[in-house]
Write a sequence for this structure.
């Protein structure tokens, strides 16, 4: 049986307000609420709503045979709860159709727990609670979008997510090579799968070139690519992030998905699975494929902590995290969950000036320097606030 | 090619730009270049470029005297902001405070005309006489292209075109709108517009200036080309700023005139010094707003943290950059602005106004609106206090500025010449 696990990412960023240095120690409010509201509304209108509509259509059409995973942070869910509650209701309705499974993730869209594993349990717990509260089902499979810098973090994640881990890439120290993996059929490594990045990128490319040809042709071409990939019989995990696609998620893009799903499910040996189902294969079934070409993808380091700006900002984030004496203090300062968002590091990217800079969709800055200055002012204020021992609950 | 000044005898960016362009053009084997300026001092150096000072053209002095002032252009003494590039010598010594009557009396008693190449009270007269020299030289030799830098030499370019019947390129390094803060002198405007109207092509140093030329002078956009300036690599290695763990230096370097926004720099200093004590602000330059700035510093109570370095030339400029931790250019209107590029060469992070031409070609700088003192102060605070920012700006800035050179500028000008000649 050939398994395809499709996962869809939903992400809304928090927009920070222009925070000047002379406000440090004077003002502790960091957010541009209007921009955040507008951006959330735009994302819902242009991306999420059409996508959820498509997923609902496919769920109804193929009943329980259409199965997929969803990845989102707790912060995104919080923003949707606050600014677009009606959309969350629609999403919940989709969940009731069955076949949708949330991936476990950090509550914040953050890198910090990958450096400081002690904050990981709390991040996972908060995320799990929120997903369960809204959708009624706790997530079981952890989506690791960043390499663990500390070995303890990896162990922690495996302990906290016994169902398995889906890694965005084959991170160093996160498992063995593809060949070794296929030979391995037991132990914790059996519970680690890696996203097929080349094919996921292909999905993105297809959506970027919306007008190049029609969706049916593109879907057939994509299936050919699936067939042509190394070890085509192995389970395959594909991620699709509609936010990374320029423009709205239109009906024309829906045609592609409808044809892809129709063609895949029309084959007797093929099925769609949720993340949990992929890991619960019968004994002797092949472990999820580690894409041989995944190393060709840009390194994670290149996006979030490649340059001096990012390294200094990350250093400050970790310093603040170390200042948190216990989980209760983390709970006490909800700001911390918002301001550690890794988008803020992304805006300091060395590729900022490249026309292909993906972050432009959210990006409120004119240069990585502006992004750094603003973010560091906020971190300096927050750090000062912690030093004074007065974290405030701003939620 | 006609220009008003040439290094080392300069009072602003015009001479530096002329040197960069002539040097770049002279590297092409198929270009023979003659650069004519009002006065040659003998200390100018330029390889493969024939330099002529109008003061050396003895043969026509009598002609100038005979013509007196019966010319296509009226001659006026200049007393106000119509003067484009004010060097300290001129500014303080050549009679800005004189009344018109005094100037007239001085003129009557003056010895036979001499070219100075400066911007004093006889400027209009000198501009006219320079155009007579241009016509004389044009009659002596043949040239394929006439290229005139800024309004001071536009009459010269037009005179040469009249004799040679060859294409005229006028190069706009600044307009009177930039210099006067909007209070344009009608006579200067008239000369600028006449030159641009007569030209076969108008070169502007930035898109910012191009838009101004099209909008304010009603010049056909089809003949207006932007060619950004470059920067000459520093001839010796620039050491990182000297301050280390001690006092940090924030520098303003330029003419202290309305155009350069010096009062914004004082306001920024006040904001930063309210939070940081180990910082010194240095204003280097001279100009008609110097006294105003001194008074503003005193009023703000920051005189102990604010220095006026006076007008700097040559090596003094590089020395100043090397001692700086941050360079700020808060210009209200800056057609281009070469000095931030020089600062970047010296590994100094720069903060530049968005209303500058240089902001069109530089990425690795903090760009702010000239009036946004909060943003400027914020950037200074961060550059001084957060090492990652300075490291990144310096590293990327040096890499970037090496690509912004006069060779590229010259190549674009040469391409333009070829285009004009092919028509």
């Amino acid at each position: 049986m050939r398994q395809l696990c499709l996962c869809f990412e939903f992400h809304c960023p928090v927009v920070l307000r222009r925070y000047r240095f002379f406000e440090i120690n004077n003002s502790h409010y960091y957010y541009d609420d209007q921009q955040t509201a507008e951006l959330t509304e735009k994302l819902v209108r242009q991306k999420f709503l059409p996508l959820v509509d498509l997923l609902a259509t496919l769920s109804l059409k193929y009943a329980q045979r259409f199965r997929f995973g969803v990845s989102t942070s707790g912060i995104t869910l919080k923003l949707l709860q606050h600014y677009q509650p009606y959309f969350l209701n629609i999403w919940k309705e989709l969940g009731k159709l069955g076949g949708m499974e949330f991936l476990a993730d950090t509550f914040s869209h953050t890198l910090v727990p990958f450096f400081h594993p002690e904050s990981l349990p709390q991040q996972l717990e908060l995320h799990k609670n929120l997903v369960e509260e809204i959708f009624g089902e706790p997530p079981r499979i952890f989506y690791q979008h960043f390499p663990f810098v500390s070995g303890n973090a990896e162990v922690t994640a495996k302990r906290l997510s016994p169902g398995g881990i889906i890694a965005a890439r084959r991170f160093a120290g996160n498992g063995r090579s593809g060949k070794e993996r296929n030979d391995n059929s037991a132990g914790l490594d059996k519970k680690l799968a890696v996203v097929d990045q080349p094919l996921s990128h292909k999905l993105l490319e297809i959506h970027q070139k919306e007008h190049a040809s029609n969706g049916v042709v593109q879907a057939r071409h994509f299936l050919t690519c699936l067939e042509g990939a190394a070890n085509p019989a192995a389970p395959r995990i594909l991620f699709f992030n509609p936010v990374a696609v320029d423009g709205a998620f239109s009906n024309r893009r829906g045609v592609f998905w409808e044809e892809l799903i129709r063609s895949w499910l029309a084959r007797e040996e093929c099925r769609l699975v949720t993340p949990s189902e992929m890991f619960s294969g019968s004994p002797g079934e092949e472990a999820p494929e580690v894409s041989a070409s995944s190393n060709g993808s840009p390194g994670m380091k290149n996006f979030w902590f490649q340059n001096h700006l990012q390294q200094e900002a990350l250093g400050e984030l970790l310093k603040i995290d170390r200042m948190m004496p216990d989980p209760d203090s983390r709970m006490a300062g909800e700001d911390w969950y918002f301001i550690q968002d890794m988008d803020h590091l992304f805006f300091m990217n060395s590729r900022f000036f490249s026309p292909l800079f993906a972050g432009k969709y959210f990006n409120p800055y004119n240069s990585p320097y502006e992004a750094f200055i603003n973010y560091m002012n906020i971190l300096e204020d927050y750090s000062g606030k912690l030093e004074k021992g007065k974290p405030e609950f701003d939620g | 090619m006609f220009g008003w000044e040439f290094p080392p005898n300069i009072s602003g960016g015009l001479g530096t730009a002329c040197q960069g362009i002539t040097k770049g053009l002279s590297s092409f084997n198929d270009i023979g270049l003659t650069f004519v300026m009002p006065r040659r001092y003998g200390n100018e150096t330029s390889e493969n470029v024939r330099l002529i000072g109008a003061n050396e053209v003895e043969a026509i002095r009598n002609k100038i005297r005979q013509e007196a002032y019966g010319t296509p252009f009226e001659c006026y003494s200049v007393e106000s902001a119509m003067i484009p590039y004010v060097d300290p010598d001129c500014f303080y010594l050549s009679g800005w405070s004189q009344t018109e009557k005094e100037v007239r009396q001085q003129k009557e008693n003056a010895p036979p005309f001499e070219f100075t190449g400066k911007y004093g009270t006889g400027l209009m007269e000198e501009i006219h006489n320079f155009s007579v020299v241009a016509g004389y030289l044009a009659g002596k030799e043949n040239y394929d292209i006439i290229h005139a830098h800024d309004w001071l030499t536009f009459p010269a370019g037009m005179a040469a075109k009249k004799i040679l019947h060859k294409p005229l390129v006028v190069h706009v390094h600044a307009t009177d709108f930039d210099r006067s803060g909007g209070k344009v002198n009608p006579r200067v405007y008239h000369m600028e517009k006449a030159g641009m109207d007569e030209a076969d092509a108008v070169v502007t140093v930035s898109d910012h200036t191009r838009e101004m030329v099209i909008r304010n002078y009603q010049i056909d956009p089809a003949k207006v080309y932007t060619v950004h300036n470059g920067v000459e690599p520093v001839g010796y290695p620039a050491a990182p700023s000297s301050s280390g763990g001690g006092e940090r230096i924030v520098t303003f370097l330029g003419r202290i005139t309305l155009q350069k926004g010096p009062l914004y720099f004082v306001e920024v200093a006040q904001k930063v010094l309210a939070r940081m004590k180990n910082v010194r602000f240095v204003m280097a330059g001279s100009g008609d707003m110097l006294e105003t700035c001194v008074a503003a510093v005193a009023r703000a109570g920051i005189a102990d943290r604010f220095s006026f370095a006076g007008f700097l030339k040559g090596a003094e400029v590089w020395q100043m950059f090397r001692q700086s931790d941050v360079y700020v250019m808060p210009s209200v209107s800056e057609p281009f602005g070469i000095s931030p590029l020089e600062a970047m060469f010296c590994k100094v992070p720069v903060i530049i106004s968005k209303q500058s031409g240089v902001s069109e070609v530089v990425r690795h700088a903090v760009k702010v609106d000239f009036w946004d003192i909060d943003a400027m102060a914020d950037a200074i605070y961060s550059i001084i206090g957060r090492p990652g920012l300075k490291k990144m700006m310096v590293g990327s800035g040096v890499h970037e500025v090496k690509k912004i050179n006069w060779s590229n500028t010259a190549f674009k000008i040469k391409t333009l010449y070829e285009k004009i000649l092919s028509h």
Q: What stands out?
A: The first strand of chain A starts at residue 2 and ends at 10.
